[in-house]
Each structure stands twice: as C-alpha cells, then as structure tokens.
C-alpha cells in the first residue's frame, strides 16, 4: 500500500522563502563554531590502522641474522616487477653457513611498488614485511630505489617464534652425531 | 595655474588611496571567502603561508599565519608570475578589453560613495560643519551608480563573445540575460528612495550624501523594507553571486565565461567579482543602512575632529564587511537556482513587486510629502 504524504499548502510567509532562508542562515552560522575535521598534516599524523600496508622492508632475526635467503619468490610474484634480487652464497666459514644463500643485492623500486603485500604473503622465511612507512620522497629517481642497506635499516628486527634455521642446524648436528647421512 | 595643478595632484593622490584601499579589501575579501567558507564546512582554510619577517614575531606571528594573513599576497604573486596564455582562436582586442571593463566599472562606481565624514570650519559661516568624504560629490550620484553598473554587463558579454568557443559563449549569454533582467528590478526598487531623497526642501536630490544625512533618525531599511529586499536580491543577481551563480558555475564543468582566460586576466575577473561585491554592499549600506550613522536615533558617539573622521570611516567599513560576510554565508545556505527559475524570479515576481512597491510609496508621498 502506498503511503500518502500529507503536504500542507505553504503559508504566505513561507511562500516568500524568507523564513526558510533565515533558518538556513542560522544553521550555517552555527556550523562555524563546530569542531574542525581537518588533520593538520606535518604536526598531526594520521592514525594508521592495524595491518596498514606501507613500504616493504627486510627484517632481521632477534639474533641479528638477516632473514632473507634470496629465494626470489617475492621477485617472481611482484605484479609490477619492482623487486630485483641478485642471489649470492654464504661462504663456508661464515657464522650462518648452514643457511647457504643470502642476497648479494636486493633492490625495490618504490616508484613501481603498488603496496599490494604479495611479497609479504609469499615469503617462506618471513623476511619481508610491509610496515608503517607512507611518506617516501626523493629528488631523483635513483633515490627512490631502496637497496638492501636501506631496506634492512627501515625494517628493524622482528620477534621470531619458529627459529627454523636453528632447529635445522640442531637436527643436522643430531644426525651427524648419530651416524651421518647414508 | 599652479593652484589648478596642486588641486589636480591632490585629488589624484586621494583617488589612488581610495583605489588602493578598495583593491586590498578585494584581496582580503577573497581570503575572507575562503576562510569563512571553510569554517562553515568544518575545515580550516588557508593557514600555512608565512612572510619571512612576520613569522618571527612571538605571539602575533603564529596567529597571522593561522588566519592566512599572507595568503592574498601569495595569490597575487601567483597570478603575476604565471604564464599568461592568449589562445589563438580568440578575438584579441575584445579578449583583452573584457576583464578591464569588468574591473573598471566596479572601481568607478565607488567614486560617488560617501565613506566617511570630516569636520571643518566653513569659511562662509565660521562654524564647524560636516562634510562628506567622497571622491566626487556628484548631484546625480544615485543615477550614476545605476548607469555604471549597467556597463558591467559588457565585461561579461565581451568575455563570452570574444572567447570564440561554445561554453564561454553560452555562459556569457546566460550571464548577460540574468544581469539585464535584474537591473530593471534594481532600478525600479530604488525609485522610492529617489522620491524620498528629492522631497520638497531638498536641493541636491540624488546626492548620496543627502541620503546619508536623512538617515540620522530612521534608517531607510526600517520603513522601506520591501525596497531593501528587492534591491538586495537584485544585488546578488548583479554580482553573479550564489544563488544566482550561473555565469560561473552552471557551466561549471568548463568554467563559464572565463574559461579561456589565463593567469592575470582571470585574476582581473576574479578581483572584479569581489570588487563588485564590495561596492554593491557599500551602495546598500549607504542607501538603506544609514552609511556612516551610528544606529537609528542614537547620536554618533565620536568627537567632531580627525579622530571622529577616522571612526566614521571605520564604522562604514565595518558595515560593509558585515555585508560581505552576509554574501559569503548566503552562498553556503541556499542552493543555486535553475536558469528558468532565475528568469521567472526576475521578470514575473520582482518586477511587478517593485512596481507595486513604487506605486504604494507614490501614494504615501503624495499624501505626506515629508514622510
């Protein structure tokens, strides 16, 4: 059933629209004294939500080990091909030689990065994380290509619950003590 | 001969001061519009420009920055330094002439406005008499204002026509139709004021100073409210100000009559719009709100010397500023009219109403010649 709206005919004063204009002016005037919604940027920073996808960064172990093993999965999954990795070897006598691989060079071109987070999702070592960095500036294009040092500097350290490589080293040592590989 | 030269130079300096004050009021009217518009919309307006010197004054410097005090200077410099592109397809002479016409008519209208009073000893009677502070004490002041504001239509028409392109043409045509329709209502609504100003006993009838003098008691807005209302609505239409905003906004997607205009010429149109607004408010204040008088029936509290002269100017400018703020607030209160609604309002409603108003006052003045 349609609802019929009662429309009362306008009075003389209402037809001149003057009372409505005055009422509108009262609302406009009251709005001047309300709280302003503007966030004044450099002094006040926005509240970033949990899980905000900022710039990708490489992280280190609580022990100080660089977690990336240059498996190049992030390079292959990156949609705009922003990541360029040159894989390298960890030499025999270095402390973490059981890990065997580490990146020789790791470049993320921030001018190509679309902050999608696929590199973070695909990384098997939990080495690359998108953190809270949204203000990335430079005066030349080469300043906006983040190399390995910059990425580790921006990344910091993440707590590690798995300690995957320590467990693997312990397992290898236990196997050797037992009798070695066949 | 030397006497004439000195007279000429002094009047030139006087005119220059008035023009400079009016133009800086225009620039600050732009800032006021941006700030007040943003406050009404719950945001903060321009609050980042700083002059290198003013920034270091401890308390005042920050307040000036937050209120956007240097913003008009930044805007002016921007308009000055931007590249002024003249498109190839325009009619050059009229293209350059149009913004000049808009600005010139606005500035010329302010020559006959009494913006203050000063007191000097009259050599004939040796008494302290009141003189008006006006650039030109014309006896046909009111008619002069109506005539010159009719010329301001040419600025828009030429801009639309000379731009040689579809959208400015349409915008210019609509703007000129709107302006000429409301000029008529404006003129007829002022006829009761003419009648009152030329009542028996008054020698200089249309002089704006006599209208100000006659408002020592009751202000004209109180006993001619319909005239004031019609004049106010026509003023909104004449200055192309919301709700009659079609010349600049209805073809908003492409800019209306000033689409093809670049940096400095666009700045001219921009400033001309605010100059029209300020001068229009000043005319309304002089005619209906008593000009430099303090309040109806309350005698002026200032002394009859230089301090008093300055205070009359300040009080007048305060009233004009109040009106400019009123223009800005109305912009954010009422939605824009449709084109046919504008035409209907101008011809079908305001014109008969103003003629009826005039007839009523005609009968009133026939019966009571001195009000």
Task: Report what the structure shows.
- The complex is a heterodimer of chains A (182) and B (371).
- By secondary structure, chain A is an alpha+beta fold.
- Chain A has a domain at 56-157: Alpha-Beta Plaits (2-Layer Sandwich), CATH 3.30.70.
- Helices cover 29% and strands 13% of the residues of chain A.
- Chain A has helices at residues 12-15, 18-32, 73-77, 118-122, 148-155, 164-178; strands at 56-58, 83-89, 101-109, 128-130, 145-146.
- A 3-stranded antiparallel beta sheet of chain A has the order 2-3-5. Chain A has a two-stranded antiparallel sheet with strand order 1-4.
- Chain A is elongated and about 105 Å long.
- Chain A starts with 11 loop residues before the first helix and ends with a helix.
- Chain B is mostly helical and 371 residues long.
- Chain B folds into 2 domains: 1-81, no CATH class; 82-367, no CATH class.
- Chain B is built from 13 helices and 2 strands, in the order ααααββααααααααα.
- A two-stranded antiparallel sheet of chain B has the order 1-2.
- The model of chain B has no long low-confidence stretch (mean pLDDT 86).
- At the A-B interface, helix 2 of A face helix 1 of B.
